[in-house]
Amino acid sequence: MFVDYNTVKECDCGLLEKERQGSKLRFAAIPDTYKGITLKEITTKHYKDQANKEIFKSVAKLVKWYLENLYENIEKGKGIYFWSNTKGSGKTMLAAALANELVNEHHRYVKFATSLDILDEIRATYDRKDRESEDNESKLLKDLVTSEFLVIDDFGTERATDWAGEKFYQIVNKRYINKKVTFYTSNYDLQTLKYDDRITNRIKERSFIAHFPEESVREVIARLENNFERIAYGTD
Questions:
Q1: pTM of the predicted structure, to 2 decimals
Q2: Within 10 Å of residue 197's Cβ, how many Cβ atoms?
Q3: Contact by Cβ (8 Å): 160, 194
């Protein structure tokens, strides 16, 4: 058999890498609203209160330190629990920007989901035949417990039934045992989260706790984005 070693074939490494990156982004399922957001875009400018600006700076420093020590934190299975009692304080935006950073800059596999979506997807599997339902639920839970990084957004907003508690215990416990990194956003601190200490103790042990400013920036951002003069004339 004759092999022509002089034949030059263009390497398709770039294409393969692009396909792998596309696969990571599809798996991450980061909401469209937050897909392009980066950590550099997250600033204090939308907070009115100076004290809240300082609180946010502390959270931003934690995220920066976390990424600088990423391998050590992965080894320990340490994530971050972002919380504030105030809705719209920027928790989800920062968690999504962190997820984007991990996917795009560190080439990691991340899964992003709200707590309600997780429970809804599990319930949806029950609409199928029994055996198929078990298989689908097992696959879904496997994705949630084995993903290198998992972001659970709005944790605690769901109704804390016994069934919900058991499903989240499955996820949290398996990730705890296997030292998989989990990030949470919540409107509750761990003391007022409506789940038992099987869940909260595991989160506490494997998470840095980051208290966000108790100030909503959602209205400020909406007002800026919908400002007619800024849109029409490029002025603020």
A1: 0.82
A2: 11
A3: yes
